Amino acid sequence: MASADEPVRARSRRGADRYRWSARGFVAPGVFLVAVLLYLPLLWTTFLSLTDYNGLRDPEWTGIDNYTEMFSDPQFVGSMLNTLLWVAGTLIVPVGIGLGVALLTWNLKGGTWLRLPFLIPYALSGIGVGVIWSFILGSNGALDQALAAFGIADTPRWLLDSPLNTIVMIGATAWQGVGVNALLFTIGLQSIPKEPLEAARLDGATGFRLFRSILWPMLRPLTAVVVGLSIVASLKTFDIVQGMTKGGPGQSSETLALTMYKKTFVNSDYGLGSAIAVFLTVVTLIASILYLRQQLSSKHEG
């Protein structure tokens, strides 16, 4: 004999099914948009990376020839090394200085106004930052003229010698990015409960000991976000390099993103440019996944 609860269960299942289909209906436009704007271009780029294509005639299938050419090209190897230098530099300089600015100003009266000058450059575009620093660091530019006024005539060729040109461009990026990193770290510091800080101070923890024992462990979740964003952004560095050196002299300061751009849109070698794009995408995904897994495993162990 059928249970009296069966109609209730049936209605409950029908309600749950309607809820699931309604939820899928709300999600479907977003999924479609992501597929059209992200996944389909990625699949098309992957296909082009396996062809010989100049943007005019039909793509001609060549297999992995573009990847073989890419890894055997000294220019590509130099771009990859420059990109790694960008990753290291942007982790050390803008993130490190941003943390220092946040620590020095977060507990000060008027600290917001002290952080504001660091935050203003973030409103500029990368090309704009490149133009400003090209004026400062170019041959006989503002910096050279300022040094000459102090009797220093033999100045370095800031944008002409490698790897000095990459190093000063990392400095320009730091000038733009320190403010937003300081803002993010300040938000993290302000969210720390006062009780552990007061207890640590009563135990005599001040200065570096307070930072190491209390502040840094509590900032770790936010630090993971800041460092992850910095890694991804540095792997895709393009605009500042294009604005300051255009990858020169020669190709001495090119990054992978700039090499991809030149191969594709300057040399009209869409197949090789697509191969570099796929390689850069894979490297970015692997770096992001490995970093997030390491952070999550550290969190669970803690």
Automatic annotation (TrEMBL):
UniProt-listed GO biological process terms: transmembrane transport
Keyword Transport in annotation: yes
Classification via InterPro entries: ABC_transporter_permease, MetI-like, MetI-like_sf
Transmembrane segments: 21-44, 84-106, 118-136, 167-189, 210-235, 270-292
CDD domains, per the entry: TM_PBP2
Membrane topology field: Multi-pass membrane protein
Keywords: Cell membrane, Membrane, Transmembrane, Transmembrane helix, Transport
Segments forming domain ABC transmembrane type-1: 80-291
CC annotations in GO: plasma membrane
Family per similarity comment: Belongs to the binding-protein-dependent transport system permease family.
Record-linked PANTHER family: ABC TRANSPORTER PERMEASE PROTEIN, INNER MEMBRANE ABC TRANSPORTER PERMEASE PROTEIN YCJO
Protein name: Permease
Source organism of this protein record: Actinorhabdospora filicis
